[in-house]
Amino acid sequence: MRKFLIGLLAAIILVASISPSLARHLKGMNCDAFDKFVETPNSQADRFGAFVKKLELVRKRNTEIYFVGIAFHSDVYFENEIDLIECRIVSRFGNDVRSVKLSYSSRDQYLYPTASMIRKVTKAIGEVSNKKTDLIVVYITSHGARNKIITKHDDIGGYIWDFDLAAMFDSLSHHKAIFFIQSCYSGSLIDQFENPRRVIITASAAENKSFGCGGFRFTHFGSALAKGLLRNNSSLNDVFVALKMGVEELEQSNFESSNPQMWIGRDMSSFATAPFVAQ
After folding, report:
1. Which of 7, 38, 177, 189 sits most deeply, having the most CB atoms within 10 A of its CB?
2. How many C-alpha atoms does 262 have within 13 Å on its Cβ side?
3. Is the dihedral of CA 221, 227, 229, 235 positive or negative?
4. Which residues of the chain have pLDDT under 50?
5. What angle do CA 149, 208, 25 make, to 5 degrees?
6. How far apart are CA 186 and CA 256, in angstroms?
7. What are phi and psi of 42, to 5 degrees?
8. What is the CATH number of domain 46-273?
9. What are the structural domain ranges in the chain?
């Protein structure tokens, strides 16, 4: 009994000696706790200010397109991917696309993808955009678990629950929007994002992994989507069919399929079958 008590005391002392940041890292933090451990450079305020000024430019067409690319994890292929998809959206809709990219990068064009920054970005877009005519395209990429997105900056790791992630876009709940979500088990996030004015396309079904992380410049989903977006005058449905075929080709050597999913809100049925081009 005495040995047991001594061992228990030693374990308590060891746990108490672990720094709070390391203990939280080992346990995994939710999004708001994670944000507190991210040292945000002063330049982030200037970058956000420049983004807001870009939003205030004079409208040039009936339907403005907004692109939001978010790489929650610091692995470089996620950052590569938001660059790639932004490029394809601009190619498809023109140089007037109003875009913002969030990633834990030292490059000047990125905002940090903290929960608070994403809320500020989506609030700013919601305030200047036209709810009836404009289109918001969101591309989210990271590692994932069931009902979670994994986030990582330097050596600090955490997670974002599906309901917390969806809440970051509450300012856009009345806008026409497309969400592309790339992560393992990303199909499990659909329920929280469902909205009559949204189309949600995920890299995998709720119980499946997605592939291409590590050893590739982009994930399989990102590569296949980029290729699908090159199909001129195709509908969003056509893009998804091409995307799914592309993913299946890339996964031929795998033992399992990711099985990408598409969910269409009731107000978006005709939109999904119409040419996916600028109006």
Report:
1. 189
2. 17
3. negative
4. 4-27, 37
5. 30
6. 16
7. -60, -25
8. 3.40.50.1460
9. 46-273
